[in-house]
Amino acid sequence: DAGVIQSPRHEVTEMGQEVTLRCKPISGHNSLFWYRQTMMRGLELLIYFNNNVPIDDSGMPEDRFSAKMPNASFSTLKIQPSEPRDSAVYFCASSTGGIRGNQPQHFGDGTRLSIL
Amino acid sequence: EDKVVQSPLSLVVHEGDTVTLNCSYEVTNFRSLLWYKQEKKAPTFLFMLTSSGIEKKSGRLSSILDKKELFSILNITATQTGDSAVYLCAANFGNEKLTFGTGTRLTIIP
Fold it and tell me: Which of A27, A58, A100, B8 has the highest local Cβ count within 10 Å?
């Protein structure tokens, strides 16, 4: 079975440009999570959706970040305008959990983002 | 604030050795504890623990949870070079959010 699919795998862009990261969750999973991983801060949850509805976006660093989930098989994380401090690996994960939680999350391979 | 602390930060051992990785957590609304292995790309799921004292085992890896003392351990016996990775511990403190520790970097020397 296909796992969580993220694109692009790598993105290098200049400061100020808009960046869009994409994620396709595992079929049948109803929860989707966006994480950011850096050496300094480790793995941090940015936002998560349940049944396409954003449940908790308290980890989104600032208004430059936005996320959408228009349907059960697709989500985007957008940064506009991008800054060098946004450079990190961004992971998407999905699970079969709901509001009751307690299901393991399965991760995609990540997008390595470099902002010059 | 919910917190997960892992130790040691890094560990270097020889192939064939047994290692124990530690994870402690705060108590607020604790639901479950998860272990992941991260090599070069995605964290891959190893175990989820919800009950105290019940060991979960997969091959040479095993893990157990102590809800009284608020910690978990991950054991790897007869280590191999393929076990070299960062091992992440995460706790579910209610709803679906996971709080991750900073990880233990394990290096196995042939």
Answer: B8
